[in-house]
Amino acid sequence: MSDISSHNAVKKIDKGGILDSIIALPHQVDAAFREVSKIEIPEQYSQAKNIVVTGMGGSALGGRIIDALTLGTIRAPLEIFTEPTLPKYVNRNTLVIASSYSGNTAETLSALEDAIDKKAMVFGICTGGKMEEILKKKKLPAYVFTPNANPSNQPRMGLGYSITAVATVLSKLKFIDFTHSDFVGVIRLMGELMADFGPDSPNDKNSAKSLALKLKDKIPVIIASEHLVGAGHAFKNQLNENSKTFSLLFDIPEMNHHLLEGLKNPALAKKFLYFLLLESDLYSAEIKKRYPVSLDVIEQNGVGASVYKLQSDTKLQQVYELLVLGSFVSLYLAVLYDIDPTPIPWVDYFKSKL
């Protein structure tokens, strides 16, 4: 088991720069907000009747996170699609945000062409590739960014760009209400979290390190609700890709209606499952009261569990807090397994066989 007690110790295992990308997350947020704010988007886009975000893997996470964050407040229905074709109801009244970090994701390019054929209002997010070519040819608005603040160049580590880009586009179009001051607060918070969760923070005072140590040799089960479900999805994905760890995500209240009865068998599973319940004072009262009862049932079944309570003041800040926490936990867990978190050999193998 490798050492996670310092920056130098982590970098001995982290050859591909995942730590550097985590540290740069506030710069990703700053760049995306400033750059997207300057993009001219046609006025008619603000009249869309529904919104579709299409993307795969890490490129879809920005949409997932904003979907959960703005549920109940966004002024038009928002859906996430990770398929090569879009639903039949997509039409000229639909805003389609197509997101592909590389700009070459086959499924997203197919969905983009489908959106264009359906005469939808299209906005693209990418770093270049074929998507940029298509968007330029069709003279469609886009955020084509240079990912200077993502030295690992892994799409999953560029979430500061994708989350903030989607949020800023929708704010510009008046579908949601995030402002410049909101993102100033997010950037300030993320800077503080880098000190709290970073590798030079002592293990016994660092929540990210403590959680990574608890999750080693376990199957993490992430539990989240309401505005944090999308960020919980990102946490799970980063455990998969960075830590090379099987992980699950469930939401309260849904899990209370089935999962609690699934903790009995097989008995061997109790040894490996480890629940992480993500609590928040910003959850609704109905949801908050379910967390201690859920924890009680989990522990009565002999399954390990921890609670992390989000500390930030707003729902937007809590989403980014969880992004930073999950990123560090996944990095530290990879190091504890003596694994460089950057390479994704099985995903690459799969793509090579298609």
TrEMBL record:
Annotated family: Belongs to the PGI/PMI family.
Classification lineage: Bacteria, Candidatus Woeseibacteriota
Domain SIS residue range list: 41-175
SUPFAM superfamilies noted in UniProt: SIS domain
Gene source species: Candidatus Woesebacteria bacterium RBG_13_46_13
InterPro entries, per database record: Glu6P/Mann6P_isomerase_C, SIS_dom, SIS_dom_sf
Keywords from the UniProt entry: Isomerase
Origin superkingdom: Bacteria
Protein name: SIS domain-containing protein
One GO term of the biological process aspect: carbohydrate metabolic process
Pfam families attached to this UniProt entry: bact-PGI_C
One GO MF term attached to the UniProt entry: mannose-6-phosphate isomerase activity
